[in-house]
Every structure is written in structure tokens, then in C-alpha cells.
Amino acid sequence: MPPRSPAEDRAAADSDTAAAGREQTRQRVIEAAIGLLEREGRDAVTTRAVAVAAGVQAPAIYRLFGDKNGLLEAVAEYGFAAFLAAKHVDPDPQDPVEDLKAGWDLAVEFGLANPALYTLMYSEPGNATSAAFTAGMEILMGRIRRLAAGGWLRVDEQLAATLIHATARGAVLTWLSLPEDERNPALLTALRTAMVTAVTNQQPAVRDAGPAGAARALRAALPEQTTLSSAEQHLLREWLDRLAADG
Amino acid sequence: MPPRSPAEDRAAADSDTAAAGREQTRQRVIEAAIGLLEREGRDAVTTRAVAVAAGVQAPAIYRLFGDKNGLLEAVAEYGFAAFLAAKHVDPDPQDPVEDLKAGWDLAVEFGLANPALYTLMYSEPGNATSAAFTAGMEILMGRIRRLAAGGWLRVDEQLAATLIHATARGAVLTWLSLPEDERNPALLTALRTAMVTAVTNQQPAVRDAGPAGAARALRAALPEQTTLSSAEQHLLREWLDRLAADG
DNA sequence: GGTGGCATGTATCGACGATACCGCAAGGCT
DNA sequence: AGCCTTGCGGTATCGTCGATACATGCCACC
Lengths: 247, 247
Known about the structure:
Two copies of one chain form a homodimer.
Chain A: H1 6-10, H2 15-40, H3 47-54, H4 58-65, H5 68-86, H6 96-113, H7 115-122, H8 131-149, H9 157-177, H10 185-199, H11 210-221, H12 230-246
The first copy, chain A, binds a DNA duplex through helix 1 and helix 4.
């Protein structure tokens, strides 16, 4: 959200109601655009149609969103935020791998539930900055971090995130591109297990959770390593001893 | 391709040259559209711009392709056919799994080499009927059939084809959506092995959870730690990054 | 040498995204 | 209190888009 405009600062007395009204019409325009998008398809979302559907004048859209792309971005963010808000995220999952599956299912479910919105967001490359979008990314990164902390992660955290995105995107777009009578639910489960196999280890690399367990595991697996110089390895071992003893 | 038009039948004498000329201008228009698409982006492909780029009148496009969508479909088919023709397919591969990988690489390579064309073809669901498209599908189905004949296939042939498509689509679109400095080639190889694991019976090489996994775990679990000084933690993190990336 | 049919070329239509311009209502200043 | 500045909402309009009607002219055929 941008900082308060000078006009709002000057008229601080009723800026609340004015800003509230503005936000209200903004929301009405967005919902009208979503309605058109899901009811009549992407091409039906024109500035004029959205304006009459929302009961506002055509230039109001440009004043509210600056651009048609701005409107579409606002629509994408609104839809994604609404979906995220409707779903609750387990803050402390027992099985991080199951949690990963749940997160993947969530992403795919969003795509299948809002096909027009999903293709609008993910069909063409480019935009990646959005409040709701980064919020979803934060949730995903949290899941990945828990996996890593448990020693489950097979690849880099960044690569894991990209792999999850790529499989989910391929799953949703391919599913949507199939005629309804060829949509096999096994596609989704197979892709999900493929994602899990690519991202996680079958057995965690650390036996005990927490830094001490990870330090012990790393200390045990280290001798074969040559990436570090011998001096570095020596110092690293010392620290690992301290970390392992700390648990 | 439709059967010969009555006009062509009637003027059979020079229908060859006439049809050839027509096909020539058709090809010129398609190439002009491809040039605009890859040089100035999707939105630059307007009927007028294509017409002036190809040196034809605006209505000629509608006479040749009937519609702007017709032009775009012709463009997609042309580009895909050109790519298919440039690549030769091993008719009798020795290792069908390696052949599957090669086919997947081919599909992904097409997407990475022709990003605008690829997003045009696969971004939005719908069109699936095209000569070159079905030709590519035939090649893919041949590969899958050889896998099935060798007993390699783990799932339905249809599901295998869909899985291959979905992973390739996710790989290409995700790759293209990343900024150039975040494009990790490991994404493609990881997705390819995930696809092979999902489609074939080939078990992934059981990777020992080496130091990289433990390093990742320790890196993710570290922030709560206070045993080390901040300077030590900083250096440790650096080493853990190197160890984690080494796997 | 007509004659009919079809491709070519010009002009134009409705809709789209986007914006300039005008009136007006609401504080601020003297 | 009255004037004035400031910014918002409403009307009209611009340039471009996809798509098409209409006139023109070319060419084979009789």
C-alpha cells in the first residue's frame, strides 16, 4: 500500500471516510472484474465492461489502478489473498514431508479452483512482486526451511522452492488444458510424489532434530569433504563439537 | 489442410503457380509474424504490423488465415514444425530411458529457444489440434510405446504422456519466469529425473545423505544458536553454504 | 470481344485502452 | 465571510485494434 497522499493528509478530518469509500469502490471494481473473468473469460475483461459492471465511470479504473495491467494485478492479488485467507496453515506440523504435500496440494487446488485467475497470474512470465504473492512465498519458504532443519532436504532451499513451483504450475496448466473427460487425478498425485522425491530424501540426513543433531550428522559425514581447506575443516570441526555438545 | 478449393480445381492449368504463390505469401506472413513476436513481444503482433512487415494488405491476413487466431495457430505450427524438422529423431534407440530423456530435453529446448512462441502455444489452455503438434505427439507416443514394450513403463501410456508434458511445461514456464541470474540449470535436470522416476520403473540412485544434506540441516536450524560468536556464525554460514552447494 | 467470377486494394465500422478537459465541491487564506 | 486554490468526478474524444463491406481490376473462358 502506498503512503498517504498529500490530499489525504490535508483533509485528515474525513480522510478516513474518503479513503474507505475509495477502497470500497476499488474492491467493488476488483470483484466485478473477477466476476467477468470467471463468467465470460479473459477477453471479456475490458475496462468498459468492468466499469459498467462495477457501476463506475471508465476513467475511474485508471484513477484507481493506473492501468489495465494494474487492475489485473490487483485482481490477481485479491483472488490469491482471498484464497490464502480461506485456508489455514498449520504453524507446527508434525511431519514436514506431509506438510510439503499439503502445501503443494494447496497451490494446485488454487489453480484448479480459479482457472481463469491462475492462467492470468502464471501464464505469461514477468510479474512476481505482490503482497499476497510474497506472503504465499513466505509460507512456502517456511515449509522448506522446516524440511531443511529436519535434514529432509535433498537440494538447495532455493532450488526446492523452484521445483515445487514448477511441478505445481505444470500440473495445473496441463490439467486445465485437458478436456474434462481426460483429466486423470493420478496426474496430480504422480506429479506430487515426483516433486517429493525430487525435493526430499527418503531418510532424513540428521537423526535428531535441532542444531546439535545436525552438527553431529555433519561432523560424521565430513571426512570425505575437500571443499574446505584443512585449516577451515579443523576450525569447522571444533565448532561442530561445540554445537553438538550444546544440545 | 483443406481439400482443393473449387477455384483451384477450375483453373487447374496454373493452379500450381497460383497455389504456390499463395503458399509463398502465406509463409512470408507467418515469418513476419514470428519476427515481430520474438523481436518486439506478443503485443506487437497486430494484424496491421504483420501486414506491413510482410508487405501485404491488411485484409490479406484474413483471406489467408481467416482470423487473427488462425494466424497465430499457423505461426505456432510453423515454428514447431521448423524445430521438429531441424532435430532428427533416433528411430531405434538403444536405451529407451535415455531416449525418453532426450525427448524431454527436446521439448524443453524448444521452449527455451522460442520463449515467445512457447508461451503463445502453451500459456493458455485450449488448442491442441495441429498437424505439427500431432506429429510431435506421435513421436512422443512412439517413445512411450518403446518404453512400454521394454517393460520400463510404470504408469499408463496416456498418463505417461501427460506427465511428460506437465513436467516439461512447468520446467519451461518456470524457467522463463525467473530472472536470468536465478536460472539454475539444476532445475531442469532435477525435473527431468523426477519425470523419469515418475514414468519409468528406474529407481533413482539411492543417494547417501552426504555432508550437503547435513550442512543444509544445520544451516536451517542454526539461527537459534548462541554458542558461537556472531563472527564465528558468519564464517560458519559461509562454509555451510559451500558445503550445501557442493552436493 | 464480351462476360462472369475471384483476388486485390480502399475505406470504414465498432470496440478497445487511454487521456485531455471541464465543472464543481471542499478546505485554506486574508 | 468571501475569494481562491486544489484535486476529484464526469464527458468527450483520440489513436489503434480486429474485422469487414465495397469497389476495382485482372484473368480465364465462351
